[in-house]
Amino acid sequence: MNQTRSLLHPRDEIMQTMDRIYRYRMTTTSGGNLSIRDQSGDIWISPARVDKGNLTRRDIVCVRADGTVDGPHPPSSEFPFHKAIYEARPDLRALVHAHPVALVAFSICQKVPNTRLFHQARSVCGNVGFADYACPGTAKLGENIASTFAEGCDSVILENHGVVVGGDSLSHAFKRFEAFEFAGKTLIKAARLGDVHFLSDAQLDEAANRCVDFESFTPPEATATERELRRQLCEFVRRGCRQRLLISTEGSFSARLTGNAFLITPTQQDRENLCIDDLVLIDGEQREAGKYASRAAKAHQAIYEKHPQVQAIVFAHPVNATAFSVTDSTLDVRTIPESYVFLRDVRRVPYGIQYNVAKQHSSAKIADYVSVDSPAAILENDGVIIAGQSILDAFDRLEVLESTAEAVINAKAIGEISAMSDEVINELCREFNLK
Prior knowledge:
Blueprint: H1 10-23, E1 33-37, E2 43-45, E3 61-63, E4 69-70, H2 79-88, E5 94-98, H3 101-108, H4 119-125, E6 128-131, H5 139-150, E7 155-158, E8 162-167, H6 170-191, H7 201-208, E9 215-217, H8 224-242, E10 252-258, E11 261-264, E12 280-283, E13 286-288, H9 297-306, E14 312-316, H10 319-325, H11 337-343, E15 347-349, E16 376-379, E17 384-388, H12 391-412, H13 422-431
């Protein structure tokens, strides 16, 4: 995985990443630890017995290659397994260990999440594995985990403990960690709906090899309209990440600028940290020079070309709605008036159609499944797609879709779901001028 050269000091990188993990409720005040091994062999690591919700850069500890410790606290009690993993895997430069609830659930059932749910999860998480239990902080635990990493695993479930994920940078390790937990959450939700479908090698290859070719061009000076759209897109992508509707490696958001020109999120960049300069301008078959658009850009483009009223599009992977995408269960949004008014009936898109926009002979196209009058669809094993008449409109519908999906899953645990009748739906259509 290609990484941007990091200029952050390891203290700041660990502090900021731990803040994000804690803010996402993926660890507790006392749980988890992060480390970075620098080019000199020193290991920077979060401290023992310091509140993870109030970590400062001064709290970060450096264990030098000669074993001396620099910092106001002792290093994490789990330092021995960090050291053992680095010795077993010289290619790794950073580790994330935490106790996110979904992966802990797998750890206490002695199971490993199958990341073949989605192409991106499979790609990002790398090889997954399982390490046998040993007492925290002991050399035996380090031996067990390091031996699993030595087998080529990148994301490892620890029996009755949690998870450890490695990467060639802390950013890379965090993305793996987040994607692994997301896959775990989705599997747990999907298990309440029915049998889970996993992707074959051929299906994974289909996603990886999709067409994303655009010619490079230098656009003119940005208009006030473009600048405002860039600001709004960044704001709502960041909000989507913080509300767990998007994650750092999953999802794309675009907004029409004029005609067939639109702005879209870039590929292989952390969604929460995007700034206005990162967004990519697409105009016809051209992309803004020096930038690479989301691999879903062709699908966005096809929808804009067919539906002039669509002004914004989101491809996303919110956990509850995505659980429907990996099972045969139908998401019935005839639950409360808001759900139906905002979403209408949610269609289901067969796997791979969003990747085949360049195949002109294809009888089914992604643009046939969404429009202003049919704004939401489930993408089999690939999350959801939402179309809106503004960035706010698309985001609002995404929120409603995920809330509805969560309510339906929860309702299944309570009793039989009572959907609104055709008479009620017809009344809503009349009152709100729905087609």
